[in-house]
Design brief:
This protein has 10 helices and 15 strands. By secondary structure, the chain is of the alpha+beta class.
């Protein structure tokens, strides 16, 4: 596809010979496992004198998930789906007649929500699991969808499609540079993302995973988070004691979804705390078998002041991370002083 159809040189492709064991590597496309690509794009720890390419991307072993990178720049999956949706009609001929709607999984950042609101698009927030997107797309209700775990897709297929996401980004780059070919400086991936943040605001985002924690302790932690939702006044008083400058929680619930296509109801899909400034905390529990459970905390700080959208992600998120860890009493319940993985 990239060499024969699009004319890329074979030297621009890495790990493209199918192997049953993925060549001994990990099949997932992310900053941890795609080390070779991350280094090549100028994002690694070693300082190389080689100028990075303008665009880099990875797909996983069966090419359904994806990661998109610019020169020394990482595009989060939550931002990626929002940027594809915002540029689809102008940049991708398939969508020239408009988008039927857009959708994201509940833990994915609300960047797509802001695009949908601004462009007056039908919007759906669904539980984690691609079948929910599939129902919407089969019913002609959704054109672009995505999730924070590196999955992006469209209604050409009933599954996430990593190759499609890469081609979508290349189409956006081509469109942004249509009057600039042969010029001194291309409109870059970073330029596109920065312009998106300037227009729609930025959703600073991170995920903390606590793996193999005691299942009973994990259930008790989640039950306490639900119980606390009965009094948001008390929750906000507690938050102000932890971080006085964090916005108030305006609503909180345990997410459930009624499928508009088949009417099925999915309950207990995650605990949400929604803040007045558009920020969110989401807590999800999985794998409560005998081996142990995984608690995932999704921390999202919304910033629509364009003078503050270029901050280091860790700095912007630090107050809300503090709130999330102390509000949930995660160390008290699990004995863990740090997450297993931070994404």
């Amino acid at each position: 596809m990239f060499v024969d159809e699009l004319g890329a040189s074979e030297s621009s492709l890495l790990n493209c010979v199918p192997k049953e064991d993925f060549g001994g590597g990990h099949p997932d496309p992310n900053l941890t496992y795609a080390k070779e690509l991350v280094e090549r794009m100028g994002l690694g720890k070693s300082s190389s004198n080689v100028e990075p390419p303008e665009f880099g991307a990875a797909a996983d072993g069966d090419a359904d998930r994806n990661m998109v990178l610019g020169k020394r720049f990482f595009v989060t999956p939550s931002d990626s789906v929002a940027i594809i949706a915002a540029n689809a009609v102008q940049s991708i001929p398939y969508f020239a007649s408009g988008l039927k709607g857009v959708a994201r999984s509940m833990p994915t950042s609300a960047a797509l929500d802001v695009v949908a609101k601004n462009l007056n698009l039908k919007f759906f927030e669904v539980p984690t699991g691609w079948k929910f997107f599939g129902n919407l797309m089969d019913a002609g209700m959704c054109s672009v969808c995505g999730e924070e775990s590196f999955g992006t897709g469209s209604d050409h297929i009933r599954e996430k499609d990593g190759i499609w996401a890469v081609l979508a980004w290349l189409s956006i780059l081509a469109y942004k540079n249509k009057d600039n070919l042969g010029g001194d400086k291309l409109v870059s991936v970073e330029d596109i993302v920065l312009q998106h943040w300037a227009t729609y605001g930025r959703h600073y985002y991170t995920r903390y995973d606590y793996e193999n924690v005691d299942a009973e302790a994990a259930k008790a932690l989640m039950a306490n988070l639900v119980k606390m939702q009965s009094s948001l006044t008390d929750v906000n008083k507690l938050i102000k004691e932890i971080q006085p400058n964090v916005s108030d929680v305006v609503s909180a619930d345990e997410f459930e979804y009624k499928d508009p296509v088949d009417g099925s109801v999915s309950k207990h899909q995650g605990i949400r705390y929604l803040f007045g400034d558009g920020s969110r905390l989401v807590f999800r529990l999985s794998g409560t078998g005998s081996v142990g459970a995984t608690i995932r905390i999704y921390i999202e700080q919304y910033e629509n002041d364009s003078s503050k959208t270029g901050r280091e992600s860790s700095d912007a998120l630090s107050p809300l991370v503090d709130v999330a860890l102390k509000l949930s009493k995660i160390q008290e319940y699990t004995g863990r002083s740090a997450p297993t993985v931070i994404t």
